Amino acid sequence: MSSTLRNENLRIEGAPDPVGGVLPILRGLSPQTVQGVGFDEEMRRNLAYGTPYTLLPYTPQGEYDRVRSERDLPAVVLENETLTATFLPSLGGRLWSLVHRPTGRELLHRNPILQPANLALRDAWLAGGVEWNLGTTGHWPLTCEPLHAARVTAPDGTPVLRMYAFERLRRLTLRLDAWLPSGSPMLYVTVTVDNPAEQETPVYWWSNIAVPQDTDVRVIAPADHAFHCDYTSDLTRVGFPQVDGADRSYPGRVAHAADYFLDLPEGERRWIAALDGSGTGLVQTSTDRLRGRKLFCWGNSTGGRHWQEWLSGPGHAYLEIQAGLARTQLEHVPMPGRASWSWTEGYGLLTVDPQAVHGSWEQARAGAADALDRLLPASALARAQALAAEFGAPEEALATGSGWAALEIEAGSLPDSPLLPFGTPDAEQQPWRDLLTTGTLPASDPPAAPVTGGRWRDLLEAGARDWHAFYHLGLVRLADGEKEAARDAWKCSLELLATPWALRALAFLTESPGDAADLLVQAHLLRPDLRELTIEVLDALLRAHRPAEALRTISALPAADREHGRIRLAEARAAHATGADDRVRELLAEGIHVDNMREGEVSLDALWLAVHPEQPVPRAYDFRMSEG
Hints:
- The chain is of the alpha+beta class.
- Among the domains are: 4-19 and 76-392, Beta-galactosidase, Chain A, domain 5 (Distorted Sandwich); 534-628, Serine Threonine Protein Phosphatase 5, Tetratricopeptide repeat (Alpha Horseshoe), CATH 1.25.40.
- Helix content is 29%, strand content 25%.
- Helix 12 (513-526) runs antiparallel to helix 13 (531-543), helix 14 packs across helix 16 and helix 16 packs antiparallel against helix 17 (581-590).
- The model has no long low-confidence stretch (mean pLDDT 96).
């Protein structure tokens, strides 16, 4: 059988696609610091380096529910004699399934449902398969966005799936070339990241690989130490796999959620595997640039099991093995201006003597390493990397992503390349095309989708005349870390016209919780129908210790908004703050269903314990990842 590439429809039980919001994400991320021994100067520098001031130009993807029905998703399938690989270009290019054809075994956690949940930088995220993460710490902004996809042909005639995108936060281009040579036991994925800017840019990459979890599954990698963190303690360097007297290489036996960033020594081949009781399972390996490896598990507490069912439904436990540019996911690494970084990853079925896999750590490591060398010698992976450098321009479009890259090419901020045919801008980019051609950004309410970057700032600095242009000028200034300059622009916007957009933006920069709440209340009065703004004003009123005002705001909302999970939770919190615990118990008894419960969030279980101190937290409200 020769290697093939084809389009298919994937039938799945799924919720509707998440809806993007109109309020830009103004917050950024906090720099990481570590204490104690075991952290060298490079790691300390990377932990403190590159944290973004803001997640602009992105908006949240927080509007979705948990009502699922049969759906068809566009998929692209690569296949040879050994493997069938299914990709979803419309969902961040995720590798959804990898089947070993001779045995019929699914090597990945192939989620039986498509259910967004609040784990990504923009909220919506999906469990399962292999997720590609570029940009900054966390699940990347395009995880629920479409990528461009096209057919390419390798010099030897093998079909190649190319997926590509422009990541707007770091302003990097991403190219993923995936192929299955005839007779190959491994799927190859070559990743190329380009920094088109003159200046250095902080970069983050992790390939997040979900695999089935069971009590006999052991995660193996060539490391004797790990950097460990959970949801209660700081990052700590520990011996691995024995931690606190227990073998942590069996995630299905671990009580609570935890990360183990495996510290692979220099000179060791880069790989990680999850092997079951028979000694078989998925192995991932890469060329040397992809330095880090990680084990993540949800744990077997009530909260950990609830999270697994929340994401994948009952009976589909999974763990993650991951691979990244740095040693931990808390770091960014500096990428020079005009640089291009590339590496190749391999995915396939590894078979090892089960007595070695489940023997001592030394036996497990040696047995898996020897089996990998037989399956895919490091020299073969290096040849695949060299071959990928010869891949040419696409021959057939398979899927279409956003028009933002095409806009940046028109603006002269991104080079045009036949290897990455980004097409033309679409309607979302049209206001910014008008600014390019006329020097004036057309005003609109709600505002145009945000942009960032020096070219757009220069045009706005030169041409801002109305409330809309000054509002966007504040956004690009904030993205550059200039908070006071952003404040000045938003004040100018308000002087020209009072809008909820500038009021909300000023509230973000206001240190006093009371003053910030006042600004958001004004914004809400201007747009009482905008639910994402309503949720923000309620949170602000609670932070300002004004629960009675929060309750009055809720009482004035339409019934559909009052029934929204986030707003019902805000009502319960406000009622508790006013001493109306009977109302809290009533709401909890009726049911508070927060569809976008955040990873690590303890609001529901804390609320339950506040009004039912002698009762255990019901499973439906228990999202605790460290106890329970």
